[in-house]
Write a structure and sequence with these properties.
Number of helices: 8
CATH class: Alpha Beta
Shape: globular
CATH architecture: 3-Layer(aba) Sandwich
Strand content: 15-25%
Number of strands: 9
Number of domains: 1
Length: 236
């Protein structure tokens, strides 16, 4: 029986962060499966050559179109991974009975700080601790204190609720932003010039939610940035 860490990734639009996290974990020697149940399979649409396939291994990571997949390989992939990402769905997942999960999934919420977006995130935090990602911060006036103030306002100023939210903030970087936009049009290929600041934020988040060694994850980020891949698929 395999013990699997579930990470539920929630985003309104951009999915680049999920690709980066999966690739870093692959370079840390972990077997990663990503199931996309977003409306329109928005994440898997960004993978080159997937072209309607139900399951596709790309850069050592297994990607699954959750709504389309009804095959024997699905159970093999999902129940034999170390890390299981579920994209944009916070309901009971379909993974087979052979898998052993932590009591709660880890929620990673990629927020744009819009009012509706924050309100949705606060409703999730009532049931499960949430790790909130805020990107493209352009000045100290929009730092942690500013972000906390906006989110606490939407969470009815509940101290108990705000304690269930952990914040991760990265500054605006034009290369990071360009990767994000290019990915929407050209698909996911590489991130060899991703900023070191963004990398430190990602590896800090991953250290906190996985318990893996920070130095190990930082080395894995550098290797992933260089384009290195560990062939570690569950498909075989």
């Amino acid at each position: 029986m395999v013990s699997i860490l579930r990470i539920y990734y929630v985003a309104n639009t951009y999915y680049d962060l999920c690709f980066y996290m999966a690739q870093i974990l692959n370079n840390a020697g972990k077997r990663v499966a990503v199931e996309d149940v977003s409306d329109g399979s928005l994440l898997t649409e960004l993978i080159p050559d997937m072209d309607g396939q139900e399951i596709w291994t790309y850069k050592g990571v297994d990607y699954v179109r959750g709504e389309l997949c009804d095959c024997d390989v699905y159970d093999i992939v999902i129940t034999n991974c170390d890390i299981y990402y579920l994209i944009n769905r916070l309901v009971k997942d379909k993974a087979g009975a052979e898998a052993s999960y932590d009591a709660r999934p880890v929620i990673v919420y990629n927020s744009d700080l819009g009012k509706h977006d924050v309100s949705n995130m606060c409703s999730i935090a009532k049931c499960n601790p949430v790790n909130v990602i805020v990107r493209d911060v352009i000045s100290d006036n929009m730092g942690i204190s500013y972000i906390k103030k906006k989110i606490q306002h939407m969470c009815d100023r509940s101290e108990e609720l705000s304690e269930c939210i952990t914040y991760y903030v990265s500054n605006m970087d034009i290369i990071d932003y360009r990767y994000r936009i290019d990915m929407e049009y050209e698909g996911y290929t590489q991130f060899d010039n991703l900023s070191w600041g963004y990398g430190k934020m990602i590896t800090g988040l991953m250290t906190d939610i996985t318990g893996y060694d920070r130095k190990e994850l930082w080395h894995a980020f550098r290797h992933a940035r260089e384009g290195k891949i560990i062939e570690n698929s569950s498909v075989g």
